[in-house]
Amino acid sequence: MIGGFMAKDETVHYDGPAGGWGSAKGIARIFAKERNSPAVLDTLRRQNKPGGFMCVSCAWTKPADHNPLEFCENGAKATLWELTPRRTTLDFFAKHTVTELQGWKDHDLEHEGRLTHPMRYDRPSDRYVPCSWEEAFTGIGRELKALDPKSVIFYASGRASLETSYLYALFARLYGNNNLPDSSNMCHETTSVGLKKVIGASVGTSVFQDFSTCDAIFFFGQNTGSNSPRFLHPLQQAVKRGCKIVTFNPVREKGLESMINPQSPTEMLTGKETQISCQYHQVKTGGDIAAVMGMCKHIFARDDEAKQRGRSVIDRDFVAQHTDGLEAFEQKVRTTGWDEIERESGLTRADLEAAGQVYVDAERVIGIYGMGLTQQVGGFDSIAMLVNLLLLKGNIGRDGTGISPVRGHSNVQGQRTVGISEKPELVPLDKLAAMFGFEPPRDTGMNTVEACEGMLEGSVKAFVGLGGNFVRAIPEHGAMEEAWTKMRLTVQIATKLNRSHLINGEVAYLLPCLGRSEEDMQASGPQTVTMEDSLSCIHGSVGKHKPASEHLLSEIAIVAGIAKATLPPNPKVRWDDWQGNYAIVRDLIEETYPDKFHDFNKRMFTAGGFYRGNSARERIWKTESGKAEFTVPEALSAAGFEDRDGRYRLMTLRSNDQFNTTIYGYSDRLRGIEGTRDVLLINPKEMAKLGLTEGQMVSLQTDIDDGRERKVGGLKVLPFALPDGCVAGYYPELNPLIPLSLHEKRSKTPASKAVPVRILI
Ligand SMILES: Nc1nc2c(c(=O)[nH]1)N[C@H]1C(S)=C(S)[C@@H](COP(=O)(O)OP(=O)(O)OC[C@H]3O[C@@H](n4cnc5c(=O)[nH]c(N)nc54)[C@H](O)[C@@H]3O)O[C@H]1N2
Ligand SMILES: Nc1nc2c(c(=O)[nH]1)N[C@H]1C(S)=C(S)[C@@H](COP(=O)(O)OP(=O)(O)OC[C@H]3O[C@@H](n4cnc5c(=O)[nH]c(N)nc54)[C@H](O)[C@@H]3O)O[C@H]1N2
Ligand SMILES: [Mo]
What we know:
Blueprint: E1 18-19, H1 20-34, H2 39-46, H3 73-82, E2 87-88, H4 90-95, H5 98-101, H6 106-111, E3 114-115, E4 119-122, E5 127-130, H7 133-146, E6 152-156, H8 162-175, H9 189-199, H10 210-213, E7 216-220, H11 224-227, H12 232-240, E8 244-248, H13 254-257, E9 258-260, H14 265-270, E10 274-275, E11 279-281, H15 288-308, H16 316-322, E12 323-324, H17 326-335, H18 338-345, H19 349-361, E13 365-369, H20 371-374, H21 379-392, E14 402-405, H22 412-417, H23 429-436, H24 448-457, E15 462-466, H25 470-473, H26 477-484, E16 489-494, E17 507-512, E18 521-522, E19 525-526, E20 529-532, E21 537-541, H27 555-566, H28 575-580, H29 582-592, H30 594-597, H31 600-603, E22 610-611, E23 628-629, E24 648-653, E25 658-659, E26 662-663, E27 667-668, E28 673-674, E29 679-682, H32 684-690, E30 697-702, E31 711-719, E32 726-730, E33 755-760
Parallel strand pairs: 1-9, 2-3, 6-15, 7-8, 7-13, 8-11, 12-23, 13-14, 15-16, 16-17, 24-32, 29-31
Antiparallel strand pairs: 4-5, 4-17, 9-10, 18-19, 20-21, 21-22, 24-33, 25-26, 27-28, 30-31, 30-33
Helix pairs in contact: 1-3, 7-27, 8-27, 8-29, 9-21, 15-18, 15-19, 15-21, 24-26
The protein binds ligand MGD (2 copies) and molybdenum atom.
One ligand MGD binds next to helix 25 and strand 16.
C-alpha cells in the first residue's frame, strides 16, 4: 500500500479519476490548513468570471460560457494560499536569521504566510530589518545609478499584469538595457522561438471554439489534470461528442486517462467517469520526434494507397499553396527506418500506426503540448515535428484545428506581448522612442541562461525580480547560489517568502506587494488589471479582498517607486499619473500595439476575454519563406545525449500539490505518491536490473563530464510505470542536477525533462 492506494502492477498508481471527490477533498484540505475566512469563498465564486478576478494559477482560458464555479482544485488552492490569514511578520524576521531560514523547506517558508513590510537585509545581524518604502526606493535607485545598466537583470515571473509588465519593461529600457528574462525562458521559450520560425506566430493558433469542433486531439507532454485542470472540461465534452484523444507521455497521467467532472452532481454521485484518451502511448522521454516520425510514415503509406484510387490523404492543395519544404521532409520520413523509430520512441510500429490512423481519419485535428516537448535539448525539432504532422492535412488556420501550446503562469504569454523580452526585434522600439522621448537600447539582452552565465562569471552585478523564485527555479542550483551572493544588489518583489530571498547580494531588499485577489486602491479609485490567457484572450481582473497588510504596495507602485528614484526626470514619463490610474497605462499599451489592443479599456471585460488575433490562424505566414515551413529534424532523439550503460534520462516533474516552487503539501494525489517529494520513480524492471528495492534510499548524479560534480541524495525509490531507461523525480528538489549547459538549442530553455543521470546506491 502506498498512500492509501493499492499498488497495481507493482507500481505506484492511483486508480481514481481526475476531478471527482478527490479534488473536492484537496480544496477542503488547503482551506482547513490555511484557516481561511468564509469571505474567501466569495473571491472563489468570482474567480475567472467576467468582471471577477482572474486566477493566479495557470493560464488556461476563461470561457464566456463559464461553469457556475469556474475554478479547479489547483486554482482554489492558489487563491486560498494567497488569501491565507497567516503573516510573515517583523517578529518572525527578528527571531530567525537568514542563514537559519536557508535550512527550511520551500513549503515551510511560504507557509509562514504573506509578507507584510518592506525590508532590507542587514548583514551584521544576518537578518531582514524593516525599512520605509522611501528608504527602499532611494537605496535601490542609488545602487542602480552607480551600476552599468548592462550589468543589471530585470526578471519577471509570469504573474504580473499587462499594465505592470508594460511599465516594468519600459523602465528597463529607459534605464538602458533589454535584460528582461522571463519565466518563459525556462518554459515556453521553445514555443516562442519555434512557432515563430515555422508558422511565423509565436503563440498557439487554436481558440476555445475549436475544441467544440475538432475530431481528434494529439497530446504531447502536458499534464492537464494537475497543471490546467479546467481544460479537462472541454476535453471531456469533446470526448462525449466523439472526438478522439491520443496522448504521448512517459507517465500515465491520471487526468488524461479519465475524469469525473466535479461540477456535475450526477457524475459526482454516480462516480461515472469519462475515459479521456482513446490511446495512451508511454513514449520514452525525448522520444517524441521519433514517435511523430512513425505516425508520418504511416500517413505517407496511406497516402500512397489512396493515390492508387485517385485520392489523397495529404491535403496537396494546402501544402502547395501554404507550405514550404515538404519534399525534403517526405524524403526524410521515407528513409527513416522503423527499427530506429521504435528504438528512439520506445513505442512499437503497431502503436504508432494506430496513432497515425486516428490522424488519417480525422477531418480536424488539434495538437497540444507542454513542458514534455519544450524542456528538451531538441525541443525545437519536437515542436516542429508536431507542426509537420498538422501541416500534412492543413490542420492550422481552419476551424477545429491548430497548434496549441498550453502556457504556464497566468500572464506569462501576456508579459511577452507587452514588451518583456530580451529580444529587441520583438518590441516596437521606434514607437517607444517616439512616445517617451528616449533612445531605447537596441542590443539583445540576456535570457535566463545567459543571466545565470553572467552571474557565474561575475559580469552581472544586480538582479531585480518581479515575482518568482529565480534561484530555486533555475538549473545548476549549487553553483548558482554561490554566484548569487557575489552580486552587489538583489531586489525581490514578492508576496511570500521563498529561497531566492535568502540568498542575497551585498545590498538586498525584499518588497511585499498586493496579490491579484486584493483590492488595489490608487489615487483615481480601485483599479483593474488585465492578463492574457493561453488562447490569446485578454481579461480584466478586479481584486476585492482586503490587502494582507496596510504596508503593501501594488506591483505598479513599486516599479514606479524604483523608477522615479533611478531615472532622470522626463516630462513624457509620468509615473505618478500611471500609478494613480491604470486606465492610462492601458491607453499606452493600445498606442504601442494598436492591432492587438484597440479599444482596450472598453473591451477588457468582454465575456470570455477579447482575442488579440494571430496571423497564422489567418494563414498569413510571417516566416522567412512567407509560408508555413516543414522541418527536417536534426536527430530522432530530443534528449541531445547518447544512451549508455547505467545512464538514465531523468524527468523533473510537478506534483498535483505545488505551483512551481510553491509547495502546498506532500500529496501527489493523481499519481498516488504521498508524504514525501524526495523520491526516485523508476520501473520495476530497471529496479530489478540494479537490484533496488522499494523504499531504498539512493542518490542521483549527473552523468556529464564537465569537471563539476552534481549530486542529490536521500531519494526514496518508488516503483512507477515508466518506460525503460527513464526515471523521474520532482522539480525544484532535483534542480541541482541540471547543468546550465543542458538547454534547448535555439531558445536556451533548460532541458529539465531529459537530464543524463546515474543512480548511486
Ligand atoms: N497546479 C499547477 N499548475 C501549474 C503549474 C504547477 O506547478 N502546478 N505550473 C504552471 C507552469 S509555469 C507551467 S509551464 C505549466 C506546466 O505544465 P506542463 O506543461 O504539464 O508541465 P510538467 O508538469 O512539467 O510536465 C508535463 C508532462 O510532460 C511529460 N513528459 C516529460 N518528458 C516528456 C517527453 O519527452 N515527451 C512527452 N510527450 N512528455 C514528456 C511529463 O510526464 C508530464 O506529464 O503548468 C502551469 N500550471
Ligand atoms: N527542473 C525544473 N525546473 C523548472 C521547471 C521544471 O519543469 N523542471 N519549470 C520551469 C518553469 S515552466 C517555470 S515557469 C519556472 C518558474 O519560476 P518562477 O516563476 O520564478 O517561480 P514560482 O515558483 O512561480 O514563484 C513563486 C513565488 O512568486 C511570488 N509571488 C506569488 N504571487 C505573486 C504576485 O502576485 N506578485 C509577485 N510579485 N510575486 C508573487 C511568491 O513570493 C512565490 O514564492 O521554473 C522553471 N524551472
Ligand atoms: Mo512555466
